[in-house]
């Protein structure tokens, strides 16, 4: 089935994920309502997103919608169920998706570490030059001459014997 | 399945004494991008061996240095603290070290000193390259000075596993350094270590200079 996703959002009451897409007939937008069941304010948004994405009835429609976006929609729903304002939920999502630069990731368990890495993946994938890109170059050498380094990185301690 | 195959030759470190073999270790904190760098360098041409018990991924690579074929084993290690006890085996017989930090996270830069101290405890003389990864995230860092590298007179490479900047150069240079280290190793400690390995453990208690002895024992415990 050919389906071009245009918009994907969430309805709180009754809870449903709603997809606006272009179907086989060109220029005609359609709407698909996917009810959300068994979701409470304690639910795991990531799991809910995965389940929906793998749902045999919705799967083909959601191919172009990223897991990340679905997860975000479920987070909005959860925030609503917890009685949070939209702004509060938005801030929370933002915070959960940023890396705390001070945090020592060496101490995390596998699951938490994987979470941090998936946040990092967003920028990684955005900046990644892939092998199948037409202008991909395997060996890219760029020189960064030392005399251009005017500034200290700011991470070195003042005292001379510490770096 | 892959693990079974790995078991058979698991951590056979004898081969690193053979002329054409070199071992290069990749160190640094969790999530600095060690594995991504490896993957970028080797592209599809790699079949890594996952040794999960050692928190280690082994990448085999064949290179040509000055017309000679070199078999390179890259040891991609895990930064997580709970694998601390594996570190001795990482360092054992390594010929070069790639030490990575993340330009977006100060802690990973600060921790270089811990990694470096440990490295030098086991391998006092092997070449070491300091790598500032993820410069795609903020290219301005390439105009800044990082004193850690200067302080220990180590080369510093600005790279990005994402867009590929200087990745191939980094690994090729590391291979070259490893090969030349191996061939003109002036490392007294390493020579002592090799000597000691020919002895039985008890004998070692009596002979040899104190420092080398310590090192020998440490590495033997690891293998
Ligand atoms: N923007 C950007 N992100 C990167 C780059 N390299 C790695 N990353 C991100 O950093 C995350 C961690 O990279 P890994 O290669 O898994 O880190 P590692 O050093 O192998 O970590 P451990 O194996 O846990 O010690 C990846 O998931 C990427 O999203 C890079 O060059 N640029
Ligand atoms: Mg890794």
From TrEMBL, chain A:
Full protein name: Centrosomal protein of 19 kDa
- Any GO BP annotation: vesicle targeting, trans-Golgi to periciliary membrane compartment
Localization = Cytoplasm, Cytoskeleton, Cilium basal body; Cytoplasm, Cytoskeleton, Microtubule organizing center, Centrosome, Centriole; Cytoplasm, Cytoskeleton, Spindle pole
Q: Please give an example of a GO cellular component term from this record.
A: spindle pole
What PANTHER family does UniProt report for this protein, alphabetically?
A: CENTROSOMAL PROTEIN OF 19 KDA, CENTROSOMAL PROTEIN OF 19K CEP19
User: Does this entry carry the keyword Cytoplasm?
Assistant: yes
Q: Among its keywords, does the record have Cytoplasm?
A: yes
Which UniProt keywords are given for this protein, alphabetically ordered?
Cell projection, Cilium, Cilium biogenesis/degradation, Cytoplasm, Cytoskeleton
Family to which this protein belongs: Belongs to the CEP19 family.
Which gene is the coding source of this polypeptide chain? CEP19
Q: Which domain of life is it from?
A: Eukaryota
UniProtKB/TrEMBL annotation, chain B:
State the source organism's domain of life: Eukaryota
User: What keywords does the record list, in alphabetical order?
Assistant: GTP-binding, Nucleotide-binding
Does GTP-binding appear among the keywords? yes
A single Gene Ontology molecular function, please? GTPase activity
Residues of the region (Disordered) are: 201-223
Task: Offer one example of a GO biological process linked to this entry.
Answer: microtubule-based movement
Pfam family name, one: Ras
Q: Which InterPro entries does the record match to this protein?
A: P-loop_NTPase, RabL2, Small_GTP-bd, Small_GTPase
In its keyword annotation, does this UniProt entry include Nucleotide-binding? yes
Its GO CC terms are:
cilium
Cross-referenced CDD domains: RabL2
Quote the PANTHER family the UniProt record gives.
Answer: PTHR47978
**Which family does the record assign?**
Belongs to the small GTPase superfamily. Rab family.
Q: What is this protein called?
A: Rab-like protein 2A-like
Species in which this protein is naturally found: Chrysochloris asiatica
């Amino acid at each position: 089935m050919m389906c071009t996703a245009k918009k994907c959002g969430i309805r709180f009451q009754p809870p449903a994920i709603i997809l606006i897409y272009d179907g086989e007939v060109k220029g005609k937008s359609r709407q698909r309502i996917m009810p959300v069941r068994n979701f409470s304010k304690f639910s795991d948004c990531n799991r809910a997103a995965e389940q929906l994405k793998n749902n045999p009835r919705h799967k083909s429609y959601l191919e172009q919608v990223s897991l990340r976006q679905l997860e975000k929609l479920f987070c909005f729903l959860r925030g609503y169920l917890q009685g949070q304002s939209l702004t509060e939920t938005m801030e929370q999502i933002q915070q959960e998706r940023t890396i705390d630069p001070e945090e020592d990731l060496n101490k995390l368990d596998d699951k938490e570490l994987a979470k941090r890495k998936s946040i990092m993946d967003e920028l990684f994938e955005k900046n990644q030059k892939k092998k199948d890109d037409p202008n991909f170059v395997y060996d890219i050498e760029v020189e960064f001459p030392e005399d251009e380094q005017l500034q200290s990185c700011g991470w070195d301690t003042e005292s001379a014997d510490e770096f | 399945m892959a693990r079974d195959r790995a078991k058979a030759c698991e951590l056979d470190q004898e081969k690193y004494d053979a002329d054409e073999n070199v071992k290069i270790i990749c160190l640094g904190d969790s999530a600095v991008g060690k594995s991504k760098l490896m993957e970028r360098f080797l592209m599809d041409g790699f079949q890594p061996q996952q040794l999960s018990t050692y928190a280690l991924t082994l990448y085999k690579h064949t290179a040509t240095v000055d017309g000679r074929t070199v078999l390179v084993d890259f040891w991609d290690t895990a930064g997580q603290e709970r694998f601390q006890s594996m570190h001795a085996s990482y360092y054992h017989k390594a010929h070069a070290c790639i030490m990575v930090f993340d330009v977006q996270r100060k802690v990973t830069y600060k921790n270089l000193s811990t990694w470096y101290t440990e490295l030098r405890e086991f391998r006092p003389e092997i070449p070491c390259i300091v790598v500032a990864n993820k410069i795609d995230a903020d290219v301005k860092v390439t105009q800044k000075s990082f004193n850690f590298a200067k302080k220990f007179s180590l080369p510093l490479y600005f790279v990005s596993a994402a867009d590929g900047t200087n990745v191939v150069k980094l690994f090729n240079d590391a291979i070259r350094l490893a090969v030349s280290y191996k061939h003109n190793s002036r490392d007294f400690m390493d020579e002592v270590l090799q000597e000691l390995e020919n002895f039985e453990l008890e004998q070692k208690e009596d002979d040899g200079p104190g420092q080398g002895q310590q090192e020998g024992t440490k590495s033997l415990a690891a293998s």
